[in-house]
């Protein structure tokens, strides 16, 4: 490369990839964009002749930035009330012309998986994300986490065992949508028996209220508890729910009326709902639904 300043097109070519890496690392589109912007600033200060593989160099920089952001965020979250859930990515349909949106909506980053990734240490998360999702070799991952390649491999292996606990979504989007719509219909009707039939026996419900503990239960486990909650509260909230793609899987946007107030990620596995992530944090809902004008 020449010694002239870095042209923006070279960086923009890699932006979708970098955003995808950062979102999987951070579970937040807003923070992912911050991490990518920091990578650009560092690139702008770098010496072009010292970089042979720009994509690899940028991926390494974003990984290091994300590690620092995860560590700082953990210390800030010590006093957080209730569950903290990732910031969702919402699409109105399965069709999109935005390549960055396509990458972020990939089914490999469903909310249920991101919840599991939140349980990993920053080093485990980076090793798993870079190696298992982006095929980065362990000898390139090792310097980022300050370990040997063998230790980096062990980090990814530990993370992989944890990730196996996340429910695997059904691949057929039409099946997902049918189950989501049936769940909404049963919730609106307060039909406990129908809800039980649509829920996996070990379903988990999580709610991120933005730290407002009084809004809704933060966590429920088991089909009976979740069905009871939906049956009791369904007539009050389900009428405002509209199916939408949430992280590449069919879920729900809650708009009451027309203004989005919640996003619900739903993992349909084996034809039943295996996990529900309700996001009511106003900042996350606003960021996820920005620009969406119609729900149908």
CATH homologous superfamily placement of the largest domain: PhyR, sigma-like (SL) domain
User: Structural class of the helices, strands and pairings?
Assistant: alpha+beta
Q: What Rg, in angstroms, do the CA atoms define?
A: 20 Å
What is the N-to-C order of secondary-structure elements (H for helix, E for strand)?
A: HHHHEHHHHHHHEEHEEEEH
Mean pLDDT: 87
Number of helices: 13
List keywords for this structure.
seven-stranded mixed beta sheet, 2 domains, 296 residues, Butyryl-CoA Dehydrogenase, subunit A, domain 3, 13 helices, elongated, alpha+beta, Nuclear Transport Factor 2, Chain: A, 7 strands, single chain
Describe the structure.
The chain is an alpha+beta fold and 296 residues long. The chain has 13 helices and seven strands. The chain has a seven-stranded mixed beta sheet with strand order 1-4-5-6-7-2-3, with helices on both faces. The longest helix has 23 residues. The mean pLDDT is 87.
